[in-house]
Sequence to fold (398 residues):
Amino acid sequence: MNDILIVNANIAAEKREPFFGWLYLKDGRIAALGGADETPPPEAASAREVDGEGGWALPGFIDLHVHGGAGCDFMDADEASFEAITRFHACHGTTGMLATTLTAPKERLDAVLAAASRFMASTMPYARILGVHLEGPFVNIKWKGAQNPDYIVPPRLDWLDDWAARWPGLIRIQTLAPETEGALEYIKRLNELGIVPACGHTDAAWADIRAAAERGLRHAIHTFNAMRPFHHREPGTVGAVLIDDRIMTEVIADGYHVHSAGVELLVRAKGPGKVILVTDAMAAAGMPDGEYELGGLSVVMRGGVARLRDTGNLAGSTLTMIDAFRFAVRKVGLSVSDASRMASLNPARQIGIDHETGSLAPGKRADVLLLDADLELRRVWIGGRELSLEAKQSGSPS
Fold:
């Protein structure tokens, strides 16, 4: 691990406006940063200098909702798949992620949790697994999307307590439909365990979401997708999520799941501090068009868009975080600093790791991206170690 001094770059720092200057990485941490008129610390004189060439230094992206990539799925529950997925997404700017499950029998979910726990105890040479996001199986079949209906069940507190006892602290987020029987009690228990309760794949009415937020609901997955839409007489899930400040919102910014104007509406309603960019990427991400599987369901990918064979429903995405970030800037019109916040700091705060990562600030992990002036990803450091991008595969079109 070499000490690095990145110079001649626009720095997207946490507590100040973006500025042109330098960033010093030492011993896997951000040691210091400053403007072009400020002098780096004396010890930086021996660091390897990297010329930013007028581009951007950003914190590494954190993806809270990702199922797979490079032909693999976290539901495979094996080390080779975890390594392939984390390598692929690291090459597209993701330095940390939650391994996200699908609706499945409990024994399969147990296997994923066990595999994630083992993997997190290893070296993790690429993007770090920060925990698990359980998406289902406690969802509403009406809005199942690409969740397998054969395994949708009501919330089971006994399952949750078993998971918490066997893998304490591993589950970071759990998605469920708040209107289902027993969901409010389940949400309360999630909060007691320090797990973020999320709504998704839900037919919840306005009142259901408000009641759930009173119990601790504070996250909405892939907003607008697989949830009861807004109506001026019954605001539904979307209406409640848009105006409740207790709820953070994910969005899949790829132009397929949500129009650029829909992303803009979400950011205007919630503010850039309450929106999180995610990929919801499936195994087909980074792969050629063809036939794939998601949760036991047949998927066909054409032109980088994955859909269920039998219904035509969108089936996750082939998005990468760098593409989501660029979409937010180029198509939605957000500033680089706001898009960076939505891709890094907001997700870090939502799962309680912003003291450690998610922004460029002294003392935090050196999870750093260097982009050129056209927002093309040039270099990635994870904990101060530079990742080789030579084997980089393309993600969805940007």
